[in-house]
Design goal:
There is one protein chain. The protein is of the alpha/beta class and 361 residues long. 41% of the residues lie in helices and 22% in strands. The chain is built from 12 helices and 12 strands. The strands form 2 sheets. Strands 2-1-3-12-11-4-5-10-8-9 form a 10-stranded mixed β-sheet, with helices on both faces. A two-stranded antiparallel sheet has the order 6-7. Helix 7 links the parallel strand 8 and strand 9 (215-220). Helix 1 (15-32) packs parallel to helix 12 (342-355), helix 6 (162-178) packs across helix 7 and helix 11 (312-328) packs across helix 12 (342-355). The chain is globular and about 55 Å long. The protein binds 3-isopropylmalic acid and magnesium ion (MG).
Length: 361
């Protein structure tokens, strides 16, 4: 029996709604998968916590969750608080504090979903975007000066370190090698940004040399957007900087049918500290509390978490259940063109889970 200790942080907006739906699904999985068990502990951190305590999480927050096997996260962001406070106080504080330097974002057009591309193109989408998650444009380096004066200035400095580039490039190469096509596209912008991005290219090129079986091609980030739309089948694994991958992964999620189904893992590959798993979508203030949020992103995320925990059979079983529900098309949320609410989609996945006897075949 493997008991996985999971820290559950619902966060803001629809985060708690979709994460609680995910916990139900995981509990069902534990009932049907021999030897699988979870110990969930909730942490009420986020914007309401901030209103009560003046911080997004306790001072010793990281220490409180450090001993867990994984973190299952909802979303962060509040209409009445500055985004940089909420984000840096919780999600980025965890990603950076735990050195979760690899952010992994898979996209596939799930069965039954159409997405905005022509069907013959849409069905070619099977991508994993690897996002550098610890530095680059999100390093938090910079400053403001001359506040309130006409000469006021604000600077964000993108930080690229040899170590940071090398470790994410190794991660991306290894991931690409583990997939059937062994194909990696490296995204850059070294034509315009001639310091950090040129170092990025140089270090990635060195790492690529250690992977002779890997096919590698290079794209400027602007051209990459066109390729994702026009030639989706030419892409498999993608390596990009923190900001580039942030933007490309939203495009990927849209091409995959909806931002509501995108999933993410923030991984510390050294496994010294827990990794964090979250749906790609944000707080979605417009639908918060209405019970209509699409929980599939949080379920796909749970499947990534299971993979990381070494529970491949359970992970596959959950994906099969998700795909059964999208394939039938009977219980889809409004963002996917359906009319089902969160509870109905959740119930449908739970029913599929209980009925699926030979996962992944
Ligand atoms: C994401 C999100 C975040 C990011 C936001 C909420 C700051 O868009 O996870 O992709 O840019 O990292
Ligand atoms: Mg984003």
């Amino acid at each position: 029996m493997s008991l996985h200790k999971i820290a559950v942080i619902g966060g803001d907006g629809i985060g708690p709604e979709v994460v609680e739906a995910g916990v139900k699904v995981l509990e069902t999985l534990a009932d049907v998968e021999p030897g699988l068990a979870f110990d969930f502990k909730r942490f009420d951190w986020g914007s309401d916590y901030y209103r009560r305590n003046g911080r997004m999480m306790p001072q010793d927050g990281l220490a409180q969750i450090e001993g867990f096997d994984a973190i299952y996260f909802g979303s962060v962001g509040d209409p009445n608080l500055p985004d940089d406070i909420t984000l840096w106080g919780l999600r980025l504080a965890i990603c950076q504090g735990f050195d979760q330097y690899a952010n992994v974002r898979p996209t596939r057009l799930l069965p039954g979903l159409t997405g905005p591309l022509r069907p013959e193109l849409g069905k070619q989408i099977d991508w994993v975007i690897v996002r550098e998650n610890s530095e680059g444009e999100y390093a938090g380096v910079g400053g403001r000066a001359h506040r309130g004066l006409p000469i006021e200035v604000g600077m964000d400095v993108a930080v690229f370190t040899r170590t940071g580039i090398e470790r994410i490039a190794r991660f991306a190469c290894d991931l690409a090698m583990s997939r059937p096509r062994k194909l990696l596209t490296v995204v850059t912008k070294s034509n315009a940004q001639r310091h950090g991005m040129v170092l990025w290219d140089e270090v990635v090129r060195e790492v690529v040399r250690d992977h002779p079986g890997l096919t590698v091609d290079w794209m400027l980030v602007d051209a990459m957007t066109q390729r994702m739309v026009n030639k989706p089948g030419s892409i498999d694994t993608v390596l990009a900087t923190n900001l580039h991958a942030d933007i490309l992964s939203d495009l990927a999620a849209a091409l995959g049918g909806s931002l509501g189904i995108g999933s993410t893992s923030n991984i510390d590959p050294s496994r010294n500290r827990p990794s964090m798993f979250e749906p790609i979508h944000g707080s979605a203030f417009d639908i918060t509390g209405k019970g209509v949020a699409n929980p599939l992103g949080s379920f796909w995320t749970a499947s990534l978490m299971l993979d990381h925990l070494g529970e491949q059979a359970a992970s596959r079983r959950l994906m099969v259940a998700i795909e059964t529900v999208t394939g039938r098309g009977e219980f889809l949320s409004p963002d996917l063109g359906g009319a089902a609410n969160t509870a109905e989609v959740t119930a449908a996945v739970i029913a599929a889970l209980s009925g699926v006897n030979s996962p992944g075949s």
